[in-house]
Amino acid sequence: MPTTDPPFLRRVASQDQFLEVVPREEANRRFHAHLTLAPLPAEHVPLSADLLGRVLAADVVAPLDVPQFDRSGVDGFAVRATDTSGATDHSPVTLRLNGEVLACGVAPVQEVLPGTATVIATGGMVPRGADAVVMVEHTDYREGPDGTPLVDIRKPASPGSFVAFAGSDIGRGEVVLRRGTVLTSRELGVLAALGLTRVGVVRRPRVAILSTGDELLAPGEPMRPGAVYDSNAAILAAAVAEAGGEPVPLGIARDRETEIAAKVEQGLEADMLVLSGGTSKGAGDISYRIIGGLGEPGIVVHGVAIKPGKPVALGVVRGKPVVLLPGFPTSAIFTFHEFVAPVIRALAGLKPAAADTVQATLPVRALSERGRAEYVMVSLVDTPAGLAAYPTAKGSGAVTSFAQADGFFCVPQGVEAVEAGTRVTVQRIGRDLEPASLSIIGSHCVGLDLLVGELAGQGIGVKLLNVGSMGGLAAARRGECDIAPIHLMDPRTGTYNTPFLAEGLTLARGYGRRQGIVFRKGDGRFEGRAAAEALAAALADPDCRMVNRNAGAGTRILLDRLLAGAKPPGYWAQAKSHNAVAAAVAQGRADWGMAIDTVAEPYGLGFLPVQPERYDFAIPADRLDRPSVRRFLDLLANASVRRRLTELGFDLTEDA
Amino acid sequence: MPTTDPPFLRRVASQDQFLEVVPREEANRRFHAHLTLAPLPAEHVPLSADLLGRVLAADVVAPLDVPQFDRSGVDGFAVRATDTSGATDHSPVTLRLNGEVLACGVAPVQEVLPGTATVIATGGMVPRGADAVVMVEHTDYREGPDGTPLVDIRKPASPGSFVAFAGSDIGRGEVVLRRGTVLTSRELGVLAALGLTRVGVVRRPRVAILSTGDELLAPGEPMRPGAVYDSNAAILAAAVAEAGGEPVPLGIARDRETEIAAKVEQGLEADMLVLSGGTSKGAGDISYRIIGGLGEPGIVVHGVAIKPGKPVALGVVRGKPVVLLPGFPTSAIFTFHEFVAPVIRALAGLKPAAADTVQATLPVRALSERGRAEYVMVSLVDTPAGLAAYPTAKGSGAVTSFAQADGFFCVPQGVEAVEAGTRVTVQRIGRDLEPASLSIIGSHCVGLDLLVGELAGQGIGVKLLNVGSMGGLAAARRGECDIAPIHLMDPRTGTYNTPFLAEGLTLARGYGRRQGIVFRKGDGRFEGRAAAEALAAALADPDCRMVNRNAGAGTRILLDRLLAGAKPPGYWAQAKSHNAVAAAVAQGRADWGMAIDTVAEPYGLGFLPVQPERYDFAIPADRLDRPSVRRFLDLLANASVRRRLTELGFDLTEDA
Question: Which of A311, A313, A437, B178 is most buried, by CB atoms within 10 Å?
Fold first, then answer.
C-alpha cells in the first residue's frame, strides 16, 4: 500500500542542502571568475546581406582611395577655373573643346590646357589641368566657323566646383571601420566601395540547448495527460540568436542519467551549453550531478536569491560555460537574460546590452517574497499621468508572463510589498514599447477578441489586459484605460453594469451573453435538466465537485448569489477564466462550474442556461472623442460585425 | 579632330525636358495611386529561430489550454486546503498519504479525499479533490505505527496555493497572438507552448536589385582607371533585408539597351525591381526608356524636388513597383529609404517605420540649394548644451556620407542657408545613437587612428570628426568635443599650437610629424634635391602642377607661408586630406603637393622634408577629469603605444 516513493522525498529533502543561495552579484562574480570572455576568432564571410548584425573582428584599413580619382559630380565640362572668371549669360567665356569625352570609366588622355575644356559625365575622371567642372546647364555647345567644337560658359566656376577629390570619401590607409562594429547596410556599402569581397567577423558562439523532463513533448507530438509542450527549446534557441549566438538544438532528454549524460557530452562540443528543466528538485538533481562530475571547477553557483530563477546553476566545464536554467518558462528566460545572454554577447564581440528603463506608477499593490530580489513582470499602459505598470501576475510557470510583459521591476530582497501608487523603475524587454492606440482593461470575452482583431486589421494597436470586471472599472476610474469591458450584476436590483458606473464614466452598449452551468455530457445529474433543478441535485450530492471562479470576476458574483451561502465541494478551487472552468470540468477535476455558453462547445461540454447577462463597455467620458475609441464604437454599430458576433452566440437584439 | 560626341550632348540637353520635378508628397501620391500594398500571402515556416523578425500572417487562436491541467508550482503535497487550517510548527496537521506519486507527466488516478494528501512534483498534475499544494519545506514525512505513510503539514494552505489552473496561462480559443505581430523569442515560446510546429507568416517581398553603369566594378574585380567599385548593390541588398524583404541580386549591367532590358525582364519576376545607376544623364536615359516602354502606367514620377535624389524615377510595371535610384551612393540610399523601404515594409506586413527624431544645434552655417528640399547629413555630438549636429559635408557621391552620418535634417525648399546656432530636427538613421564616451573633433592623423583603436579595444566608444585644426579649435571652444587634435603654426613666431589656445583650453603634448613635398619617384625636378631647391625648380617650371590643401587645414597655412604669395599652376585644386594630395600626385594629376611623410610610402611617392611640426591635443580644461579623457592621456604616456607611434614614423622624443 505505501507505494509512495521515499527516494523522491529523500532527494527533495537532501537537495535543499546543495542549494547554497547567493546574491545575484556574487553569482555573477563566481561565474565570471572562471570564464574567458574575449570575442571568438574571426571567420571570413562573403559580402552579402548575411553579414547584417555580424561584428567586425578587426579594424578595416582602406586599401585604396575612394574615389580613386578626382571625380566629376555633374554632367558638364572639365575646365581650369581661372579660365571661367567673369563669365555671365550676357558675356559667356568661350573655350575650345578637347577631343575626348570623359564618360564614366574612361581614363583621360588629354590635359586641359588654358582656354580648353573637356566634356565630362557625372562620375567621370577629371583630367590633369582641370580643377573644376561647369554644369552642362550653364553652357552652350556650338561649332566655330571652321567647325571647331566650342563651348560657351555662362557661369564662372570656383576651384574645386563639382569635383570630388581622390580620397575625399575614404583615404587609403584610413581606418574606415573599427573592430567591434555591428554591421548594417551602411557599413556593407563602405566595404563594397573598398572592393572587399569577404569580411572578417567574429564567429558566432554556438550554444547547445537541451530541455530535460519526462513531462516534455516536442511541438507536434500528440498531447497526453500531464504532459506539456516544450516551449523553452524554442524560446531559448531564438533568444540565443537574438543575443548574437548560433543555437544548436539538442532536443529533449528524459530524466535518465545516461540520456542526459550523452546529450551533455554532445553539447560540450559547442561553445556553451544551456540546459533547462529539472523543475522538480528530484529530477533537476540528475543534470546537476552530471555537470558536477565533469571536472573542475564544475558547478560554481547553485541557487541565486532572485525570483523567478532561484534554482539556477552556473558552471564551467572544460573551460566552457554551462548553465542549468529552471524549467518554468518565465524562470528560464529570465535567468537566461540574467546569466546567459551577457556571456553570449561577450563571446560574439557585442557590447553589453544597454539597459532600457522607464519610470512607471504601480496601480495595484505588489507582494514579494522577503528572502529574494523579486522581479515582477509588468504590462505598461500609457495614462495621462504617465506610464502605469500592471503586474501580469501569471507566475513563473506561465509562458505568457514573460512573452506578454513589457518589462519588469525589482522588489529588493527584504521588501515584502510595494504599495499601489509607488513609482517603480521598469526594465523594458524585447522591443521598443509601441504606445498602443487603444487600451482595454477589464473582463475578457471571445466577442471582444473579434472586435480587437478588426481594429488590428485597421492598423490600430490595442493593449488588452484581462484583469476582470472590477479591476477594469478601477482602471477606468484611474484613467488608465480607454475602455473597460464589464459584466457586473448588482445583486440587489439584478441590473447589469449601470449601477457600477462611477462619476466620469459612461457606458457603451455591448451585447448579451448567457451564463450557465457547464458539465460533462452524459452526466445524469445535469443532462436534460433545467439549471435550478440540476443545481439542487448537484448540491445534494456530496461527491459532486464544482469549480469556482476567482473573487472579483463577474461570474463569481453571479455564482455566489446562486449558491446563496452554500459552499459545496470544490468551492475553494478558483479558476481564473471561463476556459479554466471548462477545462476542469472536461478533465474530471470538477463536475460542474459556471461559464458563458461560448466556451462549452469547444470543450465538448453540456450547457444549462442560468442567466442572460450584459457585457458592456465602461468608458471614461474624456476618452470618448479619441479617434481609436470612436473606431471601436463604430465597429460595435457595424452591421457586419454585429452579424458575426451573433454567429458566435452573442445576443445583439435590442432587448438583450 | 572634333571627336567630341554631339549625341552625348544632345541626350544631356534633351533629357532635361523629360525631368518633371515634383515635390516629395506629390511623388509619393502618384506612386501609391498605382500600387496595392497589402501584405503578401502567407507561407508556413517551421518553428525555429529562422522565424525571428517574421510577421504573423493571421491571428493565432490557442488550440488547447496552457497548462492543460491544474499544475503544481512546487514540490510538495496536493491537499484539500480546508484540511490544513490551523496547522503550525507546533501543532501540525497529519494527513494520510495516497499511494501514488505525481511526478511530472504522470496522470493521477486517486482522488484526494478528506484527510489525505498526494505527493506531487513541481509541474505535476493536481488530482481531483485537491485544491492546493503544500511545499515540501513545510512538511515532514513519516510512517505511522502501522507503517502507514503520513505527512505532517506545518503551514496552512489557502485554496489555490501553488496551483496554476488549467488555461490560466493560455485559454483554448483565446487569440494569443495577432496578425501583424513581429516574432521575437517571446512569441516563438508561446507558439511552441501551443504545440505548433509551423507558423503562417507573411511571405517576404522579393526585391530585385540591378546596378547599371560602364564605370562599375563588382567587389573583387581588379581596379582600372576611372572605375569605381559598385557599393550600391551591397547597401541596397542589405537595406532590402533590413526593411523586411528578400534581396534578389541581379549584378551589374553595362549601359547597353539589350543588357539592361534582359536584366529588367528577369527583375520583374520578383515582387519589386530597384535599379541604381545612370548618374550620367545620358546613360540614365536607357533604363528610363526601357521601363517606360513596358506598358501602363510605366513611369509615373521622374524627378523629385529633393537633394540628394532629384533624378529618382518611380514607376509601376505589370502591377509591380519599379524604382530607378540615382547612382551616387548617398543619393541612392537616401531615396531608397524615402520611396522603396516603405513599399517593402507594407508588402512584408510591417508597420511604417517610426520616425526617430532628436533636436540638435547646428554649430556651423549650412548652405542649401534653393529649389529643392535639401537633406543635410549630420554627425551628432553630445555637448553640455545638448546635441550638436555637424554636417558631414562629403556630398552625395560619397559612400561614407550616409554610412557615417547619425542622421539628417531638412532645409525646406526655398531656403538658401541655415545659420550657425539654429536648432534643427534631426531624423536619426540606422540605429540608436550610442552616446560616445569620447568625442574628438579636429585634424586627422594616422597616429590618432592608432590611439583611437586602442581606446576601442578598451571598450571606449570614440566619435571622431575630421574637420581640420581650425574647426577642431572652434568646436573645443564651444565645448562640443573632449579633444581637438591640432597642428597650427603661428606664422609670426613659427611656434606650433600654443599661440592658438583660447581661454579655457589646455594643450596635451602629442608628437612630432614631418611635413614635406611629395612627388613621383624619378621626377628630376625633385628627386635628390633639398626641399627649398626643389620648390624653386617647381615654381620656375610652368608645366609643373601642384595640388593645394583646403583653407583651414594646418598644412595649407604652412604651404601658403612657403609659397610666399606665389600661385603656381594647380594652386586652386584644394584636396581635403593628406591622402588626396598623395593620390593626385601618384596619378599624375599634379606633380607635387605637401603632406606628412607617413602617406608618401603607401602611394610609392618620394618625400622631401620641409618642416617638423607638432601634432598636439587641445582639451577644454573642464573635460580633463573625464575618465575617457584620462584614458586617452594615459595612452599618450604609455611606453608601448609610444614605441608603436615611433615605428609609424612619428617623433616622440623630448625635443620634438
Answer: A313
